[in-house]
Amino acid sequence: MNILKIERMDFCYKQQFILKDFELSITEGSIYGLVGKPKSGKTTVLKLILGLLKSTSSRIYLKGQDLYDQRDKIQQMAGAIIDLPYYQNFLTVKENFKYIDMLFGFGDLRIAEILRFTGLTKHTNIKVKKLTMTQRKLLSIGLALFHNPDLLIFDDLLRGLDNDSKENVCKLLLKIKKRGKTIIMSNRSICDIEKVCTHIGLLEEGRISIEGSALEVRKELEQNLDYSEQRLYYSPIESKAIPTFSF
Ligand SMILES: Nc1ncnc2c1ncn2[C@@H]1O[C@H](COP(=O)(O)OP(=O)(O)OP(=O)(O)O)[C@@H](O)[C@H]1O
């Protein structure tokens, strides 16, 4: 069953078309990797899904329900990491969860459960600014998961991580999937995410050009692209550190 379905989505910034007749279906319980070259429109797709941008032409269905006039509903049912980290650097890990819990009121048991689930229990009382990049990513994921959403949307989650860290984060993604959640994650390259993604969709020229399992997408690419173009999708993303922000 589809948890999310997008039909005929067009989107442009000023005169520049980013998406044209874009269609996407995401199966419940899957990990969908939205892969594309820099500036191909991955973040734009994720923002449109979350209602942070609006396309007048499209229809977005969440669990079969048309979200056209009620985009705030998807924000309740989804947890996301887009653009900025959602934590506060000057607070400890636990204080960050307490802060977000002011919205939800789940209490300490939920905080302890998420700390355990993300492997952050022993860092409970450490300030975020002292955490490694991997621990901050785990914290971001924990904050996105906190209200127990069915759908998780992660933009460029693995960017800035070395290989070991990517593996740690991917292990957590698999744990999330095991709980029946659905994940949509964007990435520039296939190679970092092919082990975790059940589906991969290639975003090219405003629409999904190739879609399938990692193996199927690899086969299509081998048949349709020359070696240098294939490498674009298989070279690891750069592990250059990305800046962190505190609000
Ligand atoms: N607010 C904006 N105003 C105008 N153009 C924008 C805006 N945001 C993004 N764009 C343009 O839209 C295009 C798609 O951007 P987007 O960030 O969605 O791509 P992306 O695939 O996520 O890129 P990357 O892999 O580099 O993160 C780019 O050409 C970008 O410059």
UniProtKB/TrEMBL annotation:
It holds the Pfam family ABC_tran. SMART domains: AAA. Keywords: ATP-binding, Nucleotide-binding, Transport. Residues 4-230 form the ABC transporter domain. One of its GO terms (molecular function) is ATP binding. This is ABC-2 type transport system ATP-binding protein. It comes from Dysgonomonas alginatilytica. The lineage of its organism: Bacteria, Pseudomonadati, Bacteroidota, Bacteroidia, Bacteroidales.
